[in-house]
Amino acid sequence: MTWTIAKKEIVENLLSYKFFVVILLSSVLIFTSLFVMGRDFKGRAADYQLIKPEKGEPIALLPPNPLSVFAKGLEDSITRSYELNFNGIETRTGRSSANSVFAFFSMPDFVYIIKVVLSLVALLFGFDVISREREAGTLKLALSNPLSRASLLAGKWIGNLLSLVVPFLLVTGLGVAVLSFDPAFRLTSSGIGRLALLLGLSLAYIALFLTLGMFISTVTRRSSSSLVVLLLIWAMMVFVLPNLGTLVARQIVELPSVRALQEKREQIWTREILLTYSDRGNRDTHLRRMNQEIDALEEDYRNKFDRLVRLAKSVNRISPAAAFVYAATEIAGTGAGEESRLKREVVRYKNQILSSGTLEGKRAAAFAYSYRSVGNVLAEGGLFDLSWLLVFNIVFFAAAYAAVVRYDVR
Q1: Can you tell me the distance from the alpha carbon of 390 to that of 218, in angstroms, rounded to the nearest whole number?
Q2: pTM
Q3: What are phi and psi of 131, to 5 degrees?
Q4: 77, 94 Cβ separation under 8 angstroms
Q5: Counting C-beta atoms within 10 Å of the first and last residue's C-beta, which end of the chain has fewer, N or C?
């Protein structure tokens, strides 16, 4: 009976005007995003070939990440150029989008479209699955047959989820296939695995909002009431709650401004350079002390910043939208955790070449960096975010079942 109800939902969706409108809109947005972000990636890859360091230059610079097409995250910060000299680490401006139109109208990436558009589409599929049937009188008729309410709920969930997931996977697969024809876009076996995990995460997120819509549909008497309540909840989850943690964290963790940090670095540099001129015999000592003080200053800033990020994430995870974005960007290698790890590796690289006397005229060893493995990403928070989305699904479905058991079909 569950599969019979599921097939009924699929057929009704295929014959409805709503299905074609929302699926067409979502498909156009996803395909357009992949196309535009893919072209942008190609431009950034060409820029990298032009500005990548020559052999022996003390510069840390990473090539663009192909998965940034799907989850842009902090890609511009991660792929910025770090030039090493006696003053420490000089950060060049990140390579922003090669498409000048982005300066005026930024194109949402794949993750953003799922977070905002697909979550809303899932609500539109689930907001009236029970209340509409009651209003039409078909719910009473269906339950007069040997059909359990659990089978009814499960069948509606499966049918609507398949109606959402199949078009989504087809459009995404077609977009990835088109991208793969471009020689500039090449996914390794690890990249393909990460993309598959990202798609699985997206399905859990979409299913969550579908289940939420079904739950609200079981506790309201009219479809119009369900829609109003769900739009309010959706706005809170997607736009309000993900920013709450940042506001809370800034009130708790005191973090100096970047401008104040830069001025302090310049003070240390000026003091030690003046001492070097007056005490030329201890030039290396002064340069080493300058390097140590600047490193300590920046390490203190990074530690405070990391505490702020951890606290903000902990609070923001109240929202499944925030948990989804955190997990998606970390899986793609464009998250805050990857950026923090890269900066620590750059500092280690700087200390390595300074201790070897490379800046005195020797050729520097090339900067080498490997993105964290999927296992490390999951162990450092990704698995928690994925589990959190699954918990939301289970809680909303259990609540919907408890409500539908007591639902008055009259």
Answers
A1: 20
A2: 0.91
A3: -65, -35
A4: yes
A5: C
**Structure-token pair, residue 8:** 């009924």
Judge contact between 324 and 205, C-beta under 8 A.
yes
Q: Are 211 and 397 in contact (CB under 8 A)?
A: yes
The Cα–Cα gap between 235 and 134 comes to 27
Count the Cβ atoms, other than its own, within 10 Å of residue 353: 17
Tokens of 51: 């500005």
Match 């918990």 to its residue by tokens: 391
Radius of gyration (C-alpha) of the chain in whole angstroms:
26
d(CA 15, CA 4): 17
pLDDT tens-digit readout, 105-120? 566 899 999 999 999 9
Asked whether the CA dihedral 20, 122, 127, 399 is positive or negative, the reply is positive
Q: In the numeric block, which tokens belong to residue 305? A: 């910043």
Q: In whole angstroms, what separates CA 108 from the centre of its chain?
A: 12
Reported as a single tens digit per residue, the pLDDT across 230-279 is 999 999 999 999 988 888 888 898 888 878 888 888 888 888 778 877 77
CA dihedral 190, 195, 198, 202 (to 10 degrees): -160
